[in-house]
């Protein structure tokens, strides 16, 4: 727990240090262009996130019995990568690119649906046979 807290406290300083090193190596204009382009990529990813999730889930429904766990988590990974692209810095951009890698994870078996009541229908013909009624028992 302490390690995670320390990592969260050191992360902004590591991002600033990488930006300063990048500015020192390539110049301020290139660094500013990097930050602006990565933010625009993040905004575009977040705007198109709903369509991507819908297409991913639609394609998973047409696959066979085996579905990859990573492909089920793709919409979440895509959303997190978009947020990481919005954060200015090189480390967050590298983490976003790692999230976008097409990894093939462990397969999970899709649950099969039990047969519905519509599958148990028997086709046939019928005629209704009523008992003969006594007309004398009717009210006049």
UniProtKB/TrEMBL annotation:
Coiled-coil regions listed in the entry: none
Recorded superkingdom: Bacteria
Keywords, comma-separated and alphabetical: Membrane, Transmembrane, Transmembrane helix
Compositionally skewed regions (Basic and acidic residues) per UniProt: 125-140
Region (Disordered): 112-140
Pfam families: FxsA
Keyword Membrane among record annotations: yes
Alphabetical list of InterPro entries matching this protein: FxsA
Entry GO terms, CC: membrane
Annotated transmembrane regions: 26-46, 79-103
NCBIfam families assigned: PRK11463.1-2
Record protein name field: FxsA cytoplasmic membrane protein
């Amino acid at each position: 727990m302490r390690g995670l807290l320390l990592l969260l406290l050191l992360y902004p300083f590591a991002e600033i240090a990488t930006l300063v090193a990048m500015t020192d190596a390539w110049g301020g204009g290139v660094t500013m262009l990097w930050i602006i382009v990565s933010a625009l990529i993040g905004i575009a990813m977040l705007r198109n996130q709903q369509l991507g999730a819908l297409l991913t889930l639609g394609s998973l429904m047409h696959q066979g019995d085996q579905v990859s766990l990573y492909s089920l988590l793709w919409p979440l990974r895509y959303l997190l990568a978009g947020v990481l692209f919005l954060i200015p810095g090189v480390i967050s951009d590298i983490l976003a690119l790692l999230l976008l890698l097409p990894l093939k994870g462990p397969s999970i078996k899709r649950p099969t649906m039990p047969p519905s009541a519509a599958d148990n229908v028997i086709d046939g013909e019928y005629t209704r046979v009523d008992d003969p009624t006594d007309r004398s028992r009717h009210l006049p």
